[in-house]
Amino acid sequence: MVRSAPAEPPATPLTDGVVSLRLRRESDVDPIATASHDPEIRRWLDDTPMDAQARRTALARAAEAWRSGRAAPLVIADAVTDEPLGMVNLQFRDDEVATVAYGVFPQQRGRGIAPRAVRLLAGWARTGPAVRQVLLETDEDNTASIRVAEKSGFRRIGAYTRSDADGVARTVLVFAADPA
């Protein structure tokens, strides 16, 4: 099932006083593009690193994701300085289920940013775009993402096997946010 209506961006940034989730801006493109080449991010994502063309179209693609209702891409920013710290995205599978995806910039890791951002996004998802279930999926070897899921109040509900880009079978763990 395809979403019947686009998600509306939050009227104001979502914040817990430490991090904020806000719409992407032109000033965020370079840090996002740089992070897309980070070996740790490359290890876990199938997306290709951003090239010059992807940089030029980054904001238009984010705006189209919102308009189409496919996704809700946001920047994780420092709540005080507004410095971009990473990105978070809610990908809508249908009108009732969405999946959280995120990445924290290398120099910002280890500060508890990802769990804060995931909690904020999952809370908004259950009240804003009215999804019934928010999932977080991660490779079974990605211990950092497993910790993020657990610290964010998600519980493991299952697993499945998929082939990566090289045809290697990988086990993906599925976590669900506990109801608000």
Notes on the protein architecture:
- Keywords: Transferase.
- Residues 6-178 form the N-acetyltransferase domain.
- This is Protein N-acetyltransferase, RimJ/RimL family.
- Helix content is 32%, strand content 32%.
- Strand 4 and strand 5 form a beta hairpin.
- It has 180 residues and is α+β, with helices and mostly antiparallel strands.
- It has a single domain (14-177), classed as Aminopeptidase (3-Layer(aba) Sandwich), CATH 3.40.630.
- An 8-stranded mixed beta sheet has the order 1-2-3-4-5-6-8-7, sandwiched between helices.
- It is built from 5 helices and 8 strands, in the order E-E-H-H-H-E-E-E-H-E-H-E-E.
Q: What's the quick description here?
A:
It contains 5 helices and 8 strands; from the N terminus they run E-E-H-H-H-E-E-E-H-E-H-E-E.
Poorly predicted regions are none
- Strand-residue proportion: 25-35%
CATH topology: Aminopeptidase
Order of helices and strands: EEHHHEEEHEHEE
Number of helices: 5
Give the class-level CATH name: Alpha Beta
Percent helix range: 25-40%
Largest sheet: 8 strands, mixed
* Total beta strand runs: 8
Q: Looking at this structure, what is the CATH superfamily? A: Gcn5-related N-acetyltransferase (GNAT)
Output the structural class. Answer: alpha+beta
On the 0-100 scale, what is the average pLDDT? 89
**Radius of gyration based on Cα positions:** 15 Å
> What is the CA–CA distance across the termini?
24 Å
GO molecular function: protein N-terminal-serine acetyltransferase activity; protein-N-terminal-alanine acetyltransferase activity
GO cellular component, one term: cytoplasm
Protein name: Protein N-acetyltransferase, RimJ/RimL family
Keywords: Transferase
